[in-house]
Amino acid sequence: GAGVSQSPSNKVTEKGKDVELRCDPISGHTALYWYRQSLGQGLEFLIYFQGNSAPDKSGLPSDRFSAERTGGSVSTLTIQRTQQEDSAVYLCASSLFDQGNNSPLHFGNGTRLTVT
Amino acid sequence: AQTVTQSQPEMSVQEAETVTLSCTYDTSESDYYLFWYKQPPSRQMILVIRQEAYKQQNATENRFSVNFQKAAKSFSLKISDSQLGDAAMYFCASSNRDDKIIFGKGTRLHILP
């Protein structure tokens, strides 16, 4: 079946512009994550959606970052007034959350964001 | 708060040899999960192996096995008979039950032919 889909795969934007990154999780997956991967920095947790619960936004680095998940499916990560330090690969992952038995994450291929 | 530490930024191993990647974690919970993920140059993250904290037996998946030391909060990954296709970034991760998954900074593994 289809995996996690992210778009665009690459995005180049000018400093100060807003960007939207999209994630289509695997159908039926109730958990959705956004991570940021910078060179040498591993995977930095940004935000976590689980079903109808309030999202865990504890990883968002500033109020310029926000994310939504509409209808429990598609998610959009928005970065306002982009800065050069926002340049990174943004990875989305989803999992089938079953009674707290953490199932494996299925990752998309990421969006490489470059802020010039 | 959960933390995951990988102290080896890079490692190298000769093809067909065995290598162990280290990982330590910290959590106040008693019920949690541990994972190793692989990220090859294609950038696609793949689950390698998973361990439930309440299980004492170390997880194994073919050439991959873990050494889970719960008291020491250590979760190392052993790769036996290393192959060229094992070259990748390896990330250790942990998750408390019903909570998000947190990753370490990763270890880049080089396989020497």
**Average pLDDT figure of chain A:** 91
Number of strands of chain A: 10
The profile of the biggest β sheet of chain B is: 6 strands, mixed
* Percentage of residues assigned to helices of chain B: under 10%
Order of SSEs of chain A, N→C? EEEEEEEEEE
The dominant shape of chain A is globular
Shape of chain B: globular
Rg calculated over all Cα atoms of chain B: 13 Å
Order of helices and strands of chain B: EEEEEEEEEEEE
- Unreliable stretches of chain A (pLDDT < 50, length at least 5) are none
Described by its quaternary structure, the protein is heterodimer
Structure, described:
- The complex is a heterodimer of chains A (116) and B (113).
- Helices cover 0% and strands 46% of the residues of chain A.
- Chain A is mainly β and 116 residues long.
- In chain A, a hairpin with a 5-residue loop joins β6 and β7.
- Chain A is globular and about 40 Å long.
- Chain B has strands at 3-5, 10-14, 19-21, 24-26, 32-39, 46-52, 60-61, 64-69, 74-79, 88-96, 101-103, 107-112.
- With 113 residues, chain B is mainly β.
- In chain B, a hairpin with a 6-residue loop joins β5 and β6 (46-52).
- Chain B is globular and about 40 Å long.
- Helices cover 0% and strands 54% of the residues of chain B.
- In chain B, strands 2, 5, 6, 10, 11 and 12 form a 6-stranded mixed beta sheet that branches. A 4-stranded antiparallel beta sheet of chain B has the order 3-9-8-7, with no helix packed on it. Chain B has a two-stranded antiparallel ribbon with strand order 1-4.
- Chain B has no helices and 12 strands.
- The chains are: A mainly beta (116), B mainly beta (113).
- The interface between A and B is medium-sized, with 19 and 22 residues.
